[in-house]
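mind reviewing these C-alpha cells:
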Amino acid sequence: MIPPVANRFVAGERAIEALEYARRLDRDGVVPLVNLLGSHHDDRASVRADAAEYRALADRLATLEGEAAISVKPTQLGLDLDDSVFRGELERIVSRGRDRDVFVWLDMEEHGTVEATLEATVDLAAAYGDGIGVCLQADLYRTREDFDRLADTDAALRLVKGGAYPRPEAIAYTDPDRRDRAYRTLLERAFRRRGDAIAVATHDPAMIDHAQRLARRHDTDFQIQMLMGVRPAAQRDLAREHDVAQFVPYGERWKRWVLNRGRRNVGLAARAVGGTVIPGNRVS
C-alpha cells in the first residue's frame, strides 16, 4: 500500500488503481498518460512482463471516453539487453496502441540511450504514422540536430528542459539559466517548424506562457504535460483552453520514483507535499 504524501505522486501499485485514477482524469478533461514504473531491466523475463502489461494497458485505456496515452522507457523494454529486443517489444506496443487508438510516448533516458531511442522512433513513425511520440531534452547540445531529424516525420515531440539525469558539461548545459534559454529556443523552433503534434512538458509558468504566445503567433495549439501531484489546480485551469495530459505513474517500484522527485526538484516536491498535509493549501 502506498502511504499518504507518496500517493499524491503515484496512482497505486496495480494497474487497476492507475486505471481508476485515469478515469477520474478523463472525466475532468485531462488526458491520462500512464506509465508502469521501471527501467534498466537486465533480464528478458522482466522485459516481457512489462511489455505485456503495456499492451494490456492499451486495451483498458481504450475504454475511456476521451484520449489516453501510455509512456514507456527504452531500458524498460530491453535496450540494455539488445537493441533488437527493445525494438521488437516497442513495435508490438505501438501496434496495439494504434489498434486501440491509444497514443504511445517514448521517454528519453540517459544520454547514452538517445541515439537508439531516436532511431526506433523514426522507423516506427514511418511504419505506424502518428501513433508515436518521443521526448527531446533541451539541455543536450545535440538536440538541435535531433529536432531537425524528427521535424518532418509523423512522430509527435514532447519538449522538456532536461536536467533529470547527470550530464557532463561536454554534452549538455548544466547551468539552469542556460538550460532555460535552450528550452525557449527549442520551443520557438518547434512552433515555427512543426505547427502541430507538440507537447510542452513543464511546470514552469513562464515557459507555459511563452508557449501560449508562440501558439497564438503561429495560429496553432499544443499539449501541456505535467506530472501527477504537481500543480493540480493549474492543470485543471489550463485544461479549459488547452489539451492537458498528466503523467500517471504506478507500480511496485514507486519508492524510487517518489525519492527521485524530491531529490531532483525539492521545490516542486515541497509544494506538493504542502498541498497534501496543510489543510486548505492548494498547489497551483
User: Anything to note?
Assistant: The radius of gyration is 18 Å. Confidence is low (pLDDT under 50) at residues 271-284. The domain at 6-253 is CATH 3.20.20.220 (TIM Barrel). The first helix runs from residue 15 to 27.
